[in-house]
Amino acid sequence: MNQNQEQRFKELYQKYGPKVQRLCLGYTGNQMEAEDLLQEVFVKVWQNLHTFRGDSQVSTWIYRIAVNTCLYQIRSTKNKKSVDLDKAPLLVQSEPDNKELQVQLLHKAISELKESDRLIITLLLEEISYPEIAKITEISEANLRVKIHRIKQQLSLIYAKHERL
User: Fold this and answer.
1) Residues of 16-31 as b/e, b for ≥16 C-beta within 10 angstroms?
2) How far, in Å, CA of 155 to CA of 152, rounded?
3) Which residues, other chains included, contact 154 with Cβ-Cβ below 8 Å and sequence gap of 6+?
4) Confidence at residue 71, expressed as pLDDT on a 0 to 100 scale
5) Which residues contact 27 (CB under 8 A, 6 or more apart)?
6) Range of the domain at 73
7) How many domains does the chain have?
8) Contacts of 66 (CB under 8 A, 6+ apart)
């Protein structure tokens, strides 16, 4: 790659890295796994940056890579290990504040959703527009709005269950 491509990659990593990491965290519910997936996503971005044609926004392209990487990881490890999320400890640092605890509970609740629902709610939390989420998930915008409503209801129930524990 030439110097322009390296600079472009650095800019993409700085701009989208934190968002992709949160998307990965929404899928895994585990900070270390999310960081590993983040690195894997950006290795793929680096390897394929020269093939990006601009048919969609670069953010859509990167999120699609992230989603596919997360789904592949989840499917490949599903048979290797099984963790009961109700018994898994929250990653709590010393004396977390209330907001930090709420964020941890939210990530834990998100990790209990179906794969497709995790993707949608994580993208929504990243303030991705509805049209772009629809494009990334390959569903209509009208169907997306219905799904988001249902996901929010389900997430509220899961969150409330964990909040009582």
Assistant:
1) bbebbbbbbbbbbbbe
2) 5
3) 113, 117
4) 81
5) 34, 37, 70, 71, 73, 74, 111, 115, 118, 119, 122
6) 3-164
7) 1
8) 20, 23, 24, 37, 41
Distance between CA atoms of residues 1 and 44, nearest Å? 14
Tokens of 58: 């670069």
Q: What is the pLDDT along the chain (165 residues), one digit of tens a residue?
A: 578 888 889 999 999 999 999 888 877 777 888 899 999 999 999 999 888 888 888 988 998 899 889 888 877 766 554 444 444 444 444 445 677 777 777 777 888 888 888 888 888 888 888 998 898 888 999 999 999 999 999 988 888 887 776
Give the SS3 label for residue 77.
Answer: helix
CATH number of the domain encompassing residue 107: 1.10.1740.10
3-state secondary structure (DSSP) of residue 30 = coil
Q: What pLDDT does 37 receive?
A: 93
